[in-house]
Amino acid sequence: MQEKMVNKISLAALLHDIGKIVYRADNTHINHSVLGKNLLEKYCTDKDILQAVAYHHEKTLVKARIAENHIAYIIYEADNIAAGADRREETDGEYGFDKYSPLESIFNQLNGKCSDSEKCYHRLRGLDQTEKINYGIPIWQQNIKAARDKYEKLLSYMENNFKKLAKENSKDGFISVEPAQLLKIMEDICSYMPSSTKVSQACDVSLYDHVKLTAAIANAMYLYFVDNNIIDYKKACFSKQNKIYRQKNMFLLVSGDMSGIQDFIYTISSAGALKSLRGRSFYLDMILEYIVDEVLGTLELNRCNLIYTGGGHFYLLAPNTQNVKDKLKQFKNKCNEWFLRKTGTSLYLEMGYQECSAVNFMVPESNRNADGDYEQIGEIFRILSNKLSQQKLCRYNQEQLSAMFDPASNINRTRDGSRECGVCHTSSVDKLDEFHGKHDGNTQACNLCNKLYDFGKKIISDKNIFAVIESAEGLPLPSLDGHEYSLLSMDKDGLLKFYNGSNIKRLYTKNAAETGKLLSTNLWVGDYITHILQQENSKDEKTADFEYLAGQSRGIKRLGVLRADVDRLGQTFATAFSDENGAHYLTLSRMASLSRQMSMFFKKYINSICAGRIEGENEQEKPIFSLWNNKKQARKLVIVYSGGDDVFVVGAWDEVLEFAVDLYQSLQRFTNGKITLSAGMAMLEHKYPISQMANIAGQMESIAKDSGRNRIALLDMQEKMQTNGEDNKNKQVVHCYEWQTFINEVAGEKLQFLIKYFLFNTEQTNADETPIGKGHLAIGKGQLYRLVEFIRRKINISDQDQNTPKRMNIVRFIYWLARLEPDKKNESAYADYQEVRGKLYDWLVKDDLQDSRQLLTAIFLVIYGIRDKNDVKDMIDE
Question: Residue 89 — pLDDT band, cuts 50, 70, 90?
Fold first, then answer.
């Protein structure tokens, strides 16, 4: 009974503002509540839903002849709480509104309010209508009004979906529609519609985010009322006593955090590394999504109550009842018992919750009648985060610890202690078979590692439907009800052949706009990968491996391994929407919107950036960043992992470095310059173990953060230079730069200077590669190394002892310059020489070290770019 009522409330909440789309698509002044009810009457016969839509504002609700326990009262109050502002003073008509105002960027209010000239707005469109990034556009730059004809198209698309739902549920008039189905339709259509177009308000929360949060709050309120035997919803939500209930801790903000993700992903052999990585990474994504759905189901909630999921974390909103708290504790214990049996201590789920009230979700002006002090939602998130950190210090309960130290327990059961899996290096498995990724007869792998390799192979080949089935056929999933579940990947044809409603528990899709009764959600996944033809003149493709990607680099055959992470994301969520007067814009709606936009960038739009499509909606093709000034399109790289705020990418070294710049610049544009990124890029041979690749790139990322954030560290983390003073604390990594310094000074000035004036004597160049140097002044690799030595001495780098100061020999440097001088009869070369001599002298002789180190980095990039692909020496150590 409760599950049916929660579903009904979810549908009513998701649909309560549907009339806004009709209002904006039509030339009418009828109230959007009436328009919404009139539209839904064509498809829905449920009286409660229709009345909840019609009466969700005060002026109509106060005259409504409905029972005190009608869901309309819950929808009304949930709508107000979700909006973060009490709407009781709004007039009957839609006056004081600009119905064609576009959606403001959620980043406008982040870390300080923008001026009107700095504000950015999104174009109105559906989520899946185009792969182009829907950047925020300054209003002065282009006219991006959300025009009536665009609303008409989206309304038509919505009605077509409603017709389909009504047809599929004709027996019970729409009410048996799964909330997840309607939620997906609302996301596709309403993600770039503003919830409010009121002139006096910041219109930066989408209609989708608003109705979803309204449903989450309404569901939690209803279950709280049931548990506390509150049946007069009118008194609790609509009378003067609603002030009391707003201050009650009716809600739980629940958080889950899965630990051990990186170790699980990266602790593998190099054999079949790419497919294993993809399989492991996406498998953990699916486990997290599965856990989220199981938690929601256990609590009698649905996907509307999920605030955020990604990067191994999730947040959801639940009712504050003892029953919920007990279920969360039981769920965590069962899940970790399963992890111990299947993965040992590699993976672990921590869960916690924090009690909160409606006033915690809303801006201060909306809580002017609240009694006493209260925490805003950012503080609630911070308190909850600290709780989880403390709980992780004592991970397992007494029974689990006893099993872990019992040699005969299921956790420690070992078939053959002398043998271990050649991929994950675990010995506590029942059986080892030949590894599917390396048929050499020598590599033995456990069943899970072979399944993960096969899984990675399938998802690379566009098997984008994932079925949770009650069997052990696929990848194992946490068993929480005594049954055994697993995950299978397939395409639509495979699903039709496989389909049996009795054994499919749930479906998921990847990067697809689908709906269906068993479909839980669509997952946006950063899964870009380079494909190559099986044979020349063939249409059959295969996945590029690490060796192929390294071979596609300009010059030396090296992989670029990039790890990047958003700076201070946790702090951003805790203190995000504040101005000089305090956190006046901080609401749960905005935090949910911010989370979703960050996920969209790193899980959906990142695929477009990898493919070289960095232009926005209605924009012409834009050139992507290039070190060598050559036009490129799709990057030769692969996304190993891209979560809610971090990225791990491997590919041709120069393409990965160029992609890093594209990623930074696109993120800056997408967030209106409010979010920064730190990155580390290592250059490694393709035979390196993937765990070491991840570790080295991670160390370089840490250097970028420790150096001040909003930086990229590249090439070599060992080279350091003296800054101020003489002790080691003042030494900085040479090849670590703020992004704009790298883009403008290193690549834009120093590297382009070398390319413009020098003609490099290369050892080997691919037939399809144009020479790097476009000048007339010939220079050999040996001469470049000599220049490197001068610069290293100038910036106080000593190969033997970096604490021993050295100084550049000016006389030797001038002699080196003189030897570069060409015959004056070669006018072009001599003209280039004059430019080179003057500029190099200026950069290297003056006391400031920054030009010198920037030039050093640029020279290293050139040397890498002209090196023989088969050269195995480490260039930086020469």
Answer: very low
User: Which whole-number Å values give the CA distances from 41 to 44, 179, 577, 730, in the listed order?
Assistant: 5, 18, 39, 71
Angle in degrees, CA 486, 488, 489, rounded to 5: 155
Interatomic CA distance for residues 104 and 122, integer angstroms = 6
Q: How many CB atoms lie within 10 A of CB 422?
A: 19
Taking Cα atoms as reference points, which of 734, 714, 736 lies closest to residue 657? 714
Output the average pLDDT for the chain.
84
Range with the lowest mean pLDDT among 225-234, 384-393, 416-425, 656-665? 416-425
pLDDT the model gives residue 564: 95
Q: Which two tokens stand for residue 139?
A: 């209003």
Confidence of residue 580 (pLDDT cuts 50, 70, 90): low
Cα torsion 734, 736, 742, 745 to 10°: value is -30
Share of the chain above pLDDT 70, in %: 86
CB atoms inside a 10 Å sphere around CB 787? 20
Amino acid occupying residue 215: A
How far apart CA 670 and CA 682 sit, in angstroms, is 26
From residue 728, alpha-carbon distances to 142, 687, 708, 719, 722 in Å are 51, 34, 17, 13, 8
Check if the beta carbon of residue 192 is closer than 8 Å to that of residue 125. Answer: yes
- The tokens for 783 are 């001469």
Least confident residue range of 6-15, 397-406, 680-689: 397-406
Residues in Cβ contact with 322 at an 8 Å cutoff, skipping those fewer than 6 apart: none
- HSE-CB at 239 with a 13 A cutoff on CA atoms is 8
Rounded CA separation 798/789 (Å): 10
**Model confidence at 538: pLDDT above 50:** no
Per-residue pLDDT reduced to its tens digit, 630-641 = 777 789 999 988
Residue bearing the bigger pLDDT, 797 or 112: 112
Residue 445 has which token pair? 């792998």
Whether the per-residue pLDDT at 827 is higher than 60: the answer is: yes
Q: How far apart are CA 319 and CA 219, in angstroms?
A: 8
Using the structure block, give the residue that is written with the tokens 């840490």.
702
What tokens were used for 141? 């730059």
Alpha carbons 664 and 631: distance in angstroms, whole number: 19
Contacts of 74 (CB under 8 A, 6+ apart): 9, 218, 221, 222, 225, 233, 237
Predicted TM-score of the model (pTM): 0.90
- List 310's β-bridge partners, or say none: 313
Rounded CA separation 770/441 (Å): 43
Burial of 572 by CB count in 10 Å (0-12 exposed, 13-18 middle, 19+ buried)? buried
Between 113 and 840, residue with greater pLDDT? 840
Long-range CB contacts (within 8 A, 24+) of 805-812? 805/722, 805/726, 808/844, 810/845
CA distance 242 to 308: 28
Diameter over CA atoms, the chain: 100
Mind listing the pLDDT tens digit for each residue in 459-503?
Answer: 876 668 999 988 888 899 998 888 899 999 888 877 877 766 568
The mean per-residue pLDDT over the stretch 64-88 comes to 84
| CA 783 to each of CA 302, 561, 797, 819, 859: distance values in angstroms, whole numbers, following the listed order | 67, 29, 19, 10, 11
Q: Give the Cα separation of 506 and 517 in Å (integer).
A: 9
The pLDDT of residue 52: 94
What's the pLDDT score for residue 357? 93
Those residues whose C-beta lies under 8 Å from the C-beta of residue 549, and which sit 6 or more positions away, are: 530, 559, 636, 637, 638, 650, 651, 652, 686
| 194/211 Cα distance (integer angstroms) | 11
Token pair for 229: 């035997």
User: Facing residues of 731 across strands?
Assistant: 722
Q: Residue 478 corresponds to which tokens in the numbers above?
A: 């946490």
